[in-house]
Amino acid sequence: MFNSSPIIVGLELGTSKVCAVVGQLSDGGVLNIIGLGQSRSRAIRKGEIVNASDVAEDIRNAIVEAEQMADVEIRSVYLGVTGGHIRGFNNRGFHSVVSADREIAPEDVHDVIKNAKAINLSAENRVVHVVRQHFSVDGQNGIADPVGMFGARLEVDVHVVHGQFTRLQNPIRAVKGVQIDVENIVFTGLASSLALLSNEQKELGALVIDIGGGTTEFIVYSAGTIKHTGVFAIGGDHISNDLGYGLKVPLPMAEKLKIEHGSAAVDDSDKGVAIQLPCETGLPDRTLQVGHLRRIMSLRVEEILELVNEEIEGTGLREYMRAGAFLCGGGARIPQIDKVASRILGMPASIGRTNSMSGLKSALDQPEFSTAIGLVKFGSFEQQKHLHRTGPLHALKSRFSQFFRVG
Amino acid sequence: MMTSPEFAPVMKALSIRVIGLGGAGVTLVGKLHAESPDGVRCAVIHTNSRVLDHSPCDERVLLGAKLLRGLGAGGDPDLGRAVAEDSAEQLKSLCSDTDLVVIVAGLGGGTATGVAPVLARIAKEAGALVLAVVAVPFDFEGQRQRQAQAGLRKLRGAADAVLCLHNQKVCQLWNEDTRALEIFNNANELWAQGVQGVLNILTRRGLIHVDFADLAAVLRGRNSESCFATVEAAGENRSRDLIEKALAHPVLDHGHALTEADALLVTLVGGPDMTIGEVNRIMDALRRQPEDAQFIMGASICEEFAGRLSLTIVAAKHAVQDIDQPNDDKPSGGERPGDPQIETQFLRPPEMESLSASRFVPPPPELTESKKSELFARQGGRGGKMRKTGSRWRQGQLPLEIISKGRFEKSQPTIHHGEDLDVPTYIRRGIKLN
Ligand SMILES: Nc1nc2c(ncn2[C@@H]2O[C@H](COP(=O)(O)OP(=O)(O)OP(=O)(O)O)[C@@H](O)[C@H]2O)c(=O)[nH]1
Ligand SMILES: Nc1ncnc2c1ncn2[C@@H]1O[C@H](COP(=O)(O)OP(=O)(O)O)[C@@H](O)[C@H]1O
Ligand SMILES: [Mg+2]
Ligand SMILES: [Mg+2]
Description:
With 407 residues, chain A is α/β, with parallel strands linked by helices. Chain A contains 13 helices and 19 strands.
């Protein structure tokens, strides 16, 4: 089969798995997912690389599997980035409209955005995304497109996602090290939200929480734009580690117990229920209480959700998130997590679905794949914009190239 | 200068003798010598005359001058012990009229390893209390590591309290390209800070006073493991900075040493500007072990510390520790995380399978198992390509994490508002499981 349309590949270097998803943009602009590859991630902790050679091999394995399935050759990817160093904040840019008649021109928009991007980050930090929220003209807020309006003072609100330069560079280096180009880097929380949320949900206001192996990303939308983002370097590994510690079992066993018997809540019916531990050591059989396991686990899950809740509290936007919370990442599989999340966050919460996608639909609608699918979506937006050759994209590209200059 | 009497150093000061043994000990005491608190006198002992000559200390003792001709013990602890026994009288006079003898040494070589237990015994016989603060070798030092462990056992039997600095832990701070000399310099910096901190605890009268008996109580027990560290902070956010520095300290295992400690001694020294709120905040943040663990805190105020805070932590873990006793007919004391028994369990193949299965999302159904293996076979034949797949499941490379060290050993600790979130939530919240 030969198809000339360009392919778009999303690559997530997760703490649990390395995952590559291949998409293809049809002539009609419809995005089709045509392949997926994954390998177990051995060299990533808390979303960041700890061993360069192992990660290279894991990347190769995932890429080769995706290539085989999609029957394409992968040369470049949109790469997800995460880690405890990544932060988001809002910033405002100003610009005085200069033309004699005070009609706002595209150049004014360009300038005001440039000013909003001129952020005082400390030397070690770099911008990952600058997302435009809204314009205001002479104090009138909430304007989506000011071109053609009249006014003297143009302002723009942006959301900025930034991270530490060296730590952003590590995954880029790893990918380039296996002879694959990086088209762009994307915050994984943003990517997941692109996979899960429809435009209506973004308008209504929504929260996406991606609970992975070593990190939990969150992103807040309101009135159609991004209002807040962040990462906590805690995830499913912490749950397993807590269980291993508390139940005195080795980590792989803790991981298994978590999947088979875990829950985000302790029920009355758990009382007195015991699990027989497989006995491979020649030691006498051990039993442990399901109630203990779920108690340890629920405390950790609640804590993760409470941390996100604190962040939501800080934005003052809780009432504006009318579509509710959407969970993804492997952590979304924890039984009862939707109920617990709904209680803690004070809004409806459910498992997110990646449905606005054609192709390998049922196979892909798994919470672990949201990030990689969202990366493909990000890529498709970028490529479509590319076709239209708009200005801001060019700026984005040249900004991104800074990551390659050093090293 | 006026100082209010209760804040001043104790008047009838404890007399303390700090004695550096062997190469490492001589180096360290040379550093401490210049800024030791009142009432502390320093001395150095070695078998190597050239090293001794370079020490800034006034009181220097060359052991085995005849037998070893001032050339060192050549890594043989038996020689070190022999020359120490030979000079017992000289060592005894060094320890007379002293309340506390602090032995500072790097174990693993010949001199310090051999001399330290003898000196500890002699000092006790002379009526002094004995604290040893020793560095143990890097993992790669092999033979020396074994010698050091043997010496440590003897020393624990002879001294009242022993504090260890693991060179290996300190070394995590630096990457592979760091020069060896630099590593020692850095290690010595942490070591000196720790010893200074401990001396401060013992020589200053506190608001909340801590003395040698408290220190010895924390370090009690032949097989307990201990560590110690001192950190300082100044400026507006000093209490938060201090907590963060402590939790990031390599010697304290990124805070794990605190969580796992069975006994903890935490002392804070600040200037007259130190507030009770600061003391509380810091103590609260550091008190993170299970309820039944021993926690001793001290605080003292000292003019010289105006504007800054200095925190010294001594943590000890007794030989067997239990967090939760599962409903188990058999006593499972031997099964706690980190026990060798458990380590061997990690190597068992059945566990591996369960791990890989649970960590994976089921592959998309479009790609069946047989198709996959077919593809993999084919892909082996894609010669000439730059990328190559390795075997997917390499048994030898399975994660062999030991829970007590945790899965987060290699990564930065997750600190949020001064709290180390890598520590199990139920422990931080002090929740008992049964
Ligand atoms: N932290 C630290 N450790 C050191 C230093 N120098 C040596 N060591 C460690 O201490 C151990 C003992 O080394 P030395 O102090 O040279 O041994 P010694 O007691 O002089 O014995 P001989 O050389 O055999 O006479 C070594 O194996 C190192 O691990 C130092 O400056 N700092
Ligand atoms: N059924 C389940 N119950 C609890 N945790 C689960 C379950 N399924 C997967 N997980 C956890 O989800 C995490 C993996 O999620 P994933 O999104 O793939 O992580 P990452 O993107 O960081 O690689 C692991 O910690 C895994 O244990
Ligand atoms: Mg993920
Ligand atoms: Mg020597």
